Amino acid sequence: MRILSGIQSSGILHIGNYFGMMKRMIELQEREELSVFIANYHALTSLKDPKILKKDTLDAAVTFLSLGIDPEKSTFWLQSDVKEVLELYWILSSFTPMGLLERAHSYKDKTAKGIPANHSLFSYPVLMAADILLYDAQLVPVGKDQIQHIEMTRDIAIKFNNQFGEVFTIPNFSVDENVQKVVGIDGEKMSKSYGNTIDIFSTKKNTFKQVGKIKTDSTPLEEPKEFEGCNVYEISKLFMNENELLELEERYKNGGEGYGHFKVTLRDKIWDYFEPHRKKREYYLKNTDEVKDILDFGANKARTKAQEKMEIIKSKVGIAI
Ligand code: ADP
Ligand code: TRP
């Protein structure tokens, strides 16, 4: 099965990104044909500071590599290094009805949150369709918020195929039923753009601070507490096995401990969970030339496939004469 997914480099990656998409991708590379890229052109739609964009892009690559993406087993590259994706983006734009884009939730959400409504933000789903269709992806693992984008990709591909024959593979999405939406420290969806994240890699001080800020109710320390729906518990679920979770539930039910105590358990758990990857991260941060070489290597692999596909597409639509 050809599996593909990407992640925007528009901020420091957080545990929502990890459990929503990255973890599954890393596991899948052992048995499937995997393509993963850093979507820096997508990040440009909302991030306009060049220094930060460069830093976040490199950091996203380092984070993925530290967590276990293996550039020999998978194809791992930087979106902007394969220019064919922009050619396809333009061609697909000509086959994408305005009405389809006007229905996009993410555009409405982002502009409602104050991100300026520019054209690239509006046509974001078309570039995403190009990312997926260029490489004939069959399955796209994503978090719940991205489902509509995959559905739009399918609509665009089906419309195109109806006119030109079976050019594109129609992709499916996969969402982890257990981790559809990781909550942020404020109880809303965790997102880089909402400032409510717990980062995968940070200083101990900052990780502890982020966990310390998780919103809870004000049940007094001595009283029993409701664990279902408690943000600390919901995040703890991601890091604990069944026994640990049962133990935590007992502590909630017994009373005599405050949310601060549960937060201490959680912050230590998070710190230990990512500990095995910290050395690798330090290594890549010190050897960024090696990271760039790895991305180049991946882009070369991806480009070969992209160029073959573009020849077919350009001939079909009448661009290559
Ligand atoms: P963000 O909202 O932080 O900008 P992205 O849109 O870059 O995150 O998402 C990258 C991947 O991580 C996508 O597959 C997305 O669905 C997933 N993801 C992001 N936030 C969450 C979350 N809170 N819960 C589950 N998955 C998430
Ligand atoms: N829009 C995705 C996100 O915010 C990132 C992305 C860009 C992507 N192109 C993609 C994901 C193609 C899957 C497939 O997370």
Q: What does this 3D model show about the protein?
A:
The chain is mainly α and 321 residues long. The protein has two domains: 2-182 and 288-317, Rossmann fold (3-Layer(aba) Sandwich); 201-281, Tyrosyl-Transfer RNA Synthetase, CATH 1.10.240.10. It is built from 13 helices and five strands. The protein has helices at 15-28, 40-44, 50-67, 84-93, 98-102, 105-112, 119-134, 147-164, 204-212, 231-239, 242-254, 259-286, 288-317; strands spanning 2-8, 33-39, 75-78, 139-141, 172-174. The strands form two sheets. A three-stranded parallel beta sheet has the order 1-2-3. α4 (84-93) runs parallel beside α13. It is globular, with a radius of gyration of 21 Å. The model has no long low-confidence stretch (mean pLDDT 95). The site of adenosine-5'-diphosphate (ADP) has 19 residues, from β1 and α1.
CATH top-level class of the largest domain: Alpha Beta
Rg computed from alpha carbons, rounded to a whole number of angstroms: 21 Å
Number of strands: 5
> Architecture of the largest domain, CATH level 2?
3-Layer(aba) Sandwich
Bound molecules: adenosine-5'-diphosphate, tryptophan
Low-confidence stretches: none
Overall mean pLDDT: 95
Broad structural category: mainly alpha
Task: Sketch the major β-sheet.
Answer: 3 strands, parallel
Helix count, DSSP H or I runs of 4 or more residues: 13
